[in-house]
Amino acid sequence: MSTATTATTAGTPGTGIGGTGTASVRSWKNPIILSVVALVSLVVFALGAPGNSVTFRLSQSSDAIVLPSIVVSAPIVGWSCALAMLALAAIAVLLTRAAVRTPTWLIAVFALLFLVAFLTWVVGSARTPNVALYGLLAGSVTLAVPLIFGSLSGVLCERSGVVNIAIEGQLLFGAFAAAVAGSLSGSAFIGLLAAAVAGVLVSLVLAIFSIRYLVNQVIVGVVLNVLVSGLTGFLFSAVLSEDSQRWNSPPRLPVIRIPILADIPVIGPILFEQTIVGYLMYIAVAVVYVALYHSRWGLRTRAVGEHPKAADTLGVNVNRMRFMNVLLAGVVAGIGGAFFTLVAVSGFGRDMTAGQGYIALAALIFGRWNPIGAFFAALLFGFATNLSNVLSLLGTPVPDQFLRMLPYVVTVFAVAGLVGRSRAPGASGIPYIKG
Amino acid sequence: MSPQDENPPAPASGNSASSRRAARENSEQDERRVQEATETADGELPPPAAEATAPVPEPETDPESDPQERSLLYRVMTGSALVAFLSVVLSLILGGILIAVTDPEVARASSYFFTRPLDTLSAAWSAASNAYVALFQGSVINVRGTSFTSVIYPLTQTLTVATPLICAGLGVALAFRAGLFNIGAQGQILIGATFAAWVGFTLHLPAGVHLLLVVLAGMVGGAVWAGLVGVLKARTGAHEVILTIMFNYIATNLVLYFLSTPAFQRPGSTNPISPQLDSTAVYPLLLGSAFRLHWGFVVAVVATVFVWWLLNRSTVGFELRAVGANASAARTAGISVSRGYILAMAIAGALAGLAGVAQVSGTEQVLTSGVAASFGFDAITVALLGRSSPWGTFAAGVLFGAFRAGGVTMQASTGTSIDIVLVVQSLIVLFIAAPPLVRALFRLPVPGAESTGKRGKKNKGTPTRTPASTGAAA
Q1: Which one of A367, B214, B286, B454 has the fewest CB atoms closer than 10 angstroms to its CB?
Q2: A177, A195 in Cβ contact below 8 A?
Q3: Are strands A70-73 and A273-275 parallel, antiparallel or unpaired?
Q4: What is the CA A333 to chain-centroid distance, rounded?
């Protein structure tokens, strides 16, 4: 029975980002949302299904191992998915009537069915009902790389009790520094290093103002984003664009291909054909996860973020712990920023991070302040963005603007608690004053 | 910054007429205070009222016990007005350094810095000062103007630019007082502008009625868009920072979509641009056709008065502030926190919608996806600089309006990128948010410190009451 736990845990005032401030009972929310989505799916994906078949390509013809393409009939997939979703919604209603919380697996299966039905419908209605699934997935991971770094930065900060809205600024400054240092030195790796340093610089300001001077952390974050945007924009027009050959033409990071493993269909290129930033991303997720949950440092970090007074009583220096975590977060986000100028495109552009830092923040909440969760949430956002790119190329009946809205709408649904309640670290956003 | 920053909500503060009205609302218990208030109506203000209206909340120490507390110089030096002033100066200096460092003349002179260091310095000085002079001439008074009109033209331009900033800034400030961080002014302006513009070019009504409907439509548009966030926040507990940011992106795409539909797109055009608004739907010019200043500015002033009244003199405002100060305590006291959130966001959205009206019905007179410029984001810094008080926000809006208007002139005449304005603005907000840092930099005494020996560096880590409470406000 979820009511009691909801009431007790949600009783704390929601100070952290994503913290739930209400103590209302929401037991009927999930079944209602599921039913509505299932009915809409029935109307759109089943009744409105295009009559043709849809082709999902799994590999290129030039690949070492060529998989056959999946060809499905749009009406059959639409109807079976919609009916299955209706069934799941009915189960959720019955469970809620029996005072059982809707299980997570049910929502996961439901979301997967929705995705399959949506993909089949939208690709089926396109001018060319044929999509390269491998490209769609690989592109999603690529787009998710900065998001994952950004949300890891958020995890490190928020787990220690500091709200990090400045992810956007860290990414942008990282991108800027990588471009400039990479161009001046001619080495992409020095650019990468500079990006990490730039991320730390932004973090340093965040830490000094929010930990030392006790300024509201959200304010510092928001203002830092404006500051970095203005600073990089100013330097871009005053210096970089004056002599872009010298200042803004960084070399790109080489793609490192691991010989045999990269030949595995679909997942091979995703996991084993990346730049160093891509590999670092996988390593960072694993390291942060292990360190956070299985090391003394991690336990202290979480303690400082949940209950600083208790941690202080046991001899942990709360503010130093927070300071260190915020700086570390700067390293992570800075490297993520390097992705923009050393991997995605070669060169810096004004405000080129385009709000990715905020999406990373949403991914962090969607992932429930857990590195692995944030990783998958960021992948979902990357997928949504890439899908909208691919679909606008295919020529779908859905207006382009709505496709571009997709990641943001997904985020709204995510933070509104479709996947269950997410709870911020207890002390997130509250400065610690000893004594 | 936070609700606690402001004067205590005691009915007996402030001036007599309105305090009498406020006191009457609180019926029996306060009869004694009503008498006090009426008695002092024509005489001197009682000491507590004087303290409440002073720009700086006095520390808890008794003014009589410490002779230092009464010294005017001490008061000035510990006051937040001085900190604000120094923050602006410091930010301008830092911005000037940035301009100087990136100036090509300075770079050329610095190549022989050790032989003639003065060349570098004078080049740096002229780079920075030229930029700032241009900024000043573009925003306050054009000293090279030939006629009176051209001399004060920059000032009216500043007020024109300040109009949407003030409206949207008030929205952010009001939400902030209710404990909500409204990053979504940008989206609210866009949706408000969309509603207003649609009424403006689709309906053809007589003058007066038409403009009124346009203004109302803009407010409704903003209120609906922001109210949606309030509902989501109140019902699901989702954080408003994320919601409003996402709603900004959704609004941008939504407006782009609208502008591709026949209902909004200009006939015969393939660009995302709407038809021109009817002449009955636009704000009349305030000072004649020589200036661009329109009646939207007067609306902004009225909005400021309204927000001041709402926050400081109305029951609803009191409830909003209570929710912002401590949601749990407000709930215990019988105030509906959900209603507070929804209401605060809706009013904030309506104010941002007014900013949208100021754009489509004032300066732009057509709807494009860029109609909101970056006013929504600047509004956040405006509200922060104004410490979330209505008149503070107004002043900050005028200041940032000046930066923006002057920045355009500066970019045109000296080639200094207008982005420097963003840098200076954000630095100002950062410094103002951290008074201990500014005091430490300028070696000012700390308010409430017992002796002069304790001032400056030693005390900069001491938590002051102000920031400690802001952490909980977000």
Answers
A1: B454
A2: yes
A3: unpaired
A4: 12
Do A83 and A189 fall within a single domain?
Answer: no
Domain borders along chain B are 160-399
Q: Where are the alpha helices (DSSP H) in B278-361?
A: 296-313, 315-325, 327-332, 337-357
Return d(Cα B319, Cα B340) in angstroms, integer.
7
* Domain annotation covers residue A108: yes
**Which residue is associated with the tokens 């003065």?**
B118
Q: Is the Cβ pair A213, B239 closer than 8 Å?
A: no
Residue A133 lies in a domain: no
**Are both A263 and A315 inside the same structural domain?**
yes
- Selected residue with higher pLDDT from B217 and B133: B217
Give Cα separations from B375 to B219, B411, B467 (angstroms): 16, 19, 27
CATH code where residue A312 lies = 1.10.3470
SS3 state of residue A28: coil
Q: Which of A74-88, A305-319, A390-404, B404-418 has the lowest mean pLDDT?
A: A390-404
Least reliable range by pLDDT among A16-25, B225-234, B386-395? A16-25
Residue A3 DSSP one-character state: H
Q: Which residues of B touch A401 (CB under 8 A)?
A: 253-254, 256-257, 260
Quote the CA–CA distance of B322 and A190 in Å, as a whole number.
52
Q: Identify whether residues A337 and A192 lie together within a single domain.
A: yes
ipTM: 0.81
pLDDT, tens digit (0-9, with 9 covering 90-100), for B51-62: 333 344 444 444
Quote the minimal CA–CA distance from B431 to chain A in Å.
9
- The residue from A374, A392, A410 where one domain ends is A392
Name which of B102, B327, B463 is nearest A433 (Cβ-Cβ).
B463
Tell me if A417 and B236 make a contact (CB, 8 A cut-off): yes
Range of the structural domain that residue A308 is part of: 147-392
Query: Is A378 in the same domain as A285?
Result: yes
CA distance B297 to B301: 6
Q: Does B197 touch chain A (CB under 8 A)?
A: no
Residues A36 and A99 grouped into a single domain: yes
Q: pLDDT at residue A149 above 90?
A: yes
Q: pTM to 2 decimals?
A: 0.81
State the Cα–Cα distance between residues A144 and A132, nearest whole angstrom. 18
What confidence category does residue A371 fall into, taking pLDDT thresholds of 50, 70 and 90? very high
Pairing verdict, β A130-132 and A255-257? unpaired
Nearest to A347 by CA among A246, A197, A226, A228: A246
Q: Token digits for A38?
A: 């299932």
d(CA A233, CA A227): 10
Q: What is the pLDDT of residues B173-202, one digit of tens each?
A: 999 999 898 989 999 999 999 999 999 999
Measured on CA atoms in the order B123, B124, B129, B131, is the torsion positive or negative? positive
Same domain, A107 and A172: no
Compare all CA atoms of chain B with the CA of A420 and give the residue at the minimum distance: B236
Domain count along chain A: 2
Query: Residue A270: inside a domain, yes or no?
Result: yes
**For B126-154, how does the pLDDT look when each residue is reduced to its tens digit (9 = 90+)?**
888 888 888 888 888 887 778 888 888 88
What pLDDT score does B39 carry? Answer: 40
Domain shared by A76 and A163, yes or no = no
CB-based contact B282:B200 (threshold 8 Å): yes
Residue B430 has pLDDT above 80, yes or no: yes
Alpha-carbon span A146 to A344, nearest angstrom: 10
A236 and A385 in a single domain? The answer is yes
Other C-beta atoms lying within 10 Å of the C-beta of residue A371: 24
> Does A429 touch chain B if contact means CB atoms closer than 8 Å?
yes
Which residues in chain B have their CB less than 8 angstroms from residue A415's CB?
A: 238-239, 242-243, 246
Structural domain contains residue A104: yes
In B, minimum Cα distance to A18 occurs at B239
The structure tokens listed for B443 are 């070696």
CB-closest option in A214, A220, A361 to B242: A361
